[in-house]
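User: I'm curious what two different proteins look like when written out as structure tokens. Can you demonstrate?

Assistant: Sure. I'll show them one after the other, since each token string lines up with its own sequence. Here's the first protein:
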Amino acid sequence: MPRSMSAVNEAVLFLAVLKRIPRKRWVTAQELMENMREAGYDIQERRMQRILKAMSECEDLGIETNRKSKPYGYRQGLPSGDLSMFQMRPDVSLLVRLFEEHLRYQLPQRIRASLTTVFESARETLNESAPGRPREWVNKVAFVSGCVPMLPPKITERVFAAVSNALYRGCKLEVTYDNTQGERIKGTVSPLGLVQQEQRLYLICKFDGYDNLRHLALHRIIEAGALEDFPAERPRNFSLKKYISERHLNFSNGRKIRLTLEFTNPVTALNLRETPFTRDQVLEELPQGGWRLSAVMDDTVLLDGWIAAWREIAGIRKVVREEIESPAPAA
């Protein structure tokens, strides 16, 4: 390889490591190696140590080293704005901050910590600690959940790391799991996908020796270990998006219905025009007053809850559920 290309590749590698060193907490060489592997960089420990040593000795980079105990810790010590290459545009920063606020009630703190550098960069661009327009801007937006607020269940860092690693590498996973009946189950699974449903995370997987798919709540997994030498057995033509669309995770009873609602509140009619239940729903104003909505939908507990919550506010005076034949599943 020409020397110039080698130098460029080395510079790209340095930048990739630098982007993963946070400002407000210490990170070890081992953590950085794992983060780099997830991004597709396979770096040996000695090489990572040489890179970190070189960064620490370069005053312009401002990398601080904590040598009080082993393994050593590293963090960025530059004041805000010195690394302009990592600054986001204000509009992007605002979206990232909204994303962070949304995740605050969706994922455990330890999991969010993996995105610390990105969140810090967004805060620095918006300069929220200083007076002025950027700080006012971020305080003018908020995320409000449409469901009853709940705190997320506790998920251990080692379990999340093992599940993520197995999913990324496409290998099997050994798990110890407490089911809802209080039984402790041990087994080997092929992980197929990770789904967030409000505050909970579910691993979609298949146990060895079984054909059906299971949902394992991550907070009920007690132990997990990736089996990197054993490839996961992925069902033919499996698609996570298609699996979710087939009502496996929305509290459905598996039936399709034609829902007909008659109601009197014009604000509800406006809301249902702006955010319809389905693309082909029909909403019409009735000659005698009020509105009628008709839509083909999944028959779910969530739908029952919506009708119960809005019955009085919307002035719902008629609800008709007509069960229709569901399409046969694809072979």
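Here's a second, unrelated protein for contrast:
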Amino acid sequence: MKQYDTFIIGHISRDEIVINGKTESRPGGAVEASSYAAIAGNYKTGVLTKTSQADRALLSMFSLLDPSDVYFAESSQTTSIRNVYLTPDMERRDCFALSHADAFSIADIPEIESRIFHLAGLIAGDYDSGLFPFLARKGLVAADMQGFLRTIQPDRTMALRDWPEKTTFLPYIHFLKTDAAEAEVMTGTTDRRLAARRLHEWGAREVMITHNTEALVFDGKEYYAWPLVPRNLSGRTGRGDTCFSAYITERLGKPPRDALLYAAAMVSLKMETPGPFKGSRNDVEDYIEKFYRQ
């Protein structure tokens, strides 16, 4: 049976990114950014994704993985999202769901073993709820709340809506990630530390909240935070996915403070170049020495 450090479950998306009125089209998605971050850390990584049969060639984006570590489940359609950034810091954006792939279910999960099962979602409805108790029996569950809060509206825009089942399923989640806006929707507070504490009290073991200034983690005992220090924001898309994936894989062997430092440095470096992180562990460690050890 195949064994992984992290097994990432998420949809490929045909992205349209609009910045200053200019549109760039490329395949992507949280599953792509997350897999590159884990691979850069030298972790054994597997991926499960869904597209339409016609779009199966998109699996070529996982070129750093052995083909046997990329698992495919057919969907009636492929997810496609248009992101229109509204501010220079790229913190505000309008999102439009052009299409939405079928949800992942227990039947889609291959016979593999993994230390972490990472739900790298994009849109509410990406996962059947039964996955939580099923995966929690097999390994540590990591979940990005984007895939549970970002809800398609009748006009195809996407808005953040609270997760009605949060108190039922948060206890199955070891690593939980939100950004600042998602944390406010779930907890009702703009205080990121208080939000992290509430999400922990509702059941999640370790809570990460990302912001354009820092990455914050609360493990039920202490808060940990490291600033993000990119020299430019040309690679802003995929920031949270990269940070979360780097953190949870580093946590397999490091305490929270050290794992978060590595994640903050990786995502800071990643934000300087569009696309997923294509550097190495050595690149991240050099960045830490240059920008975090001063």
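A detail about the second structure: The longest strand covers residues 2-9.
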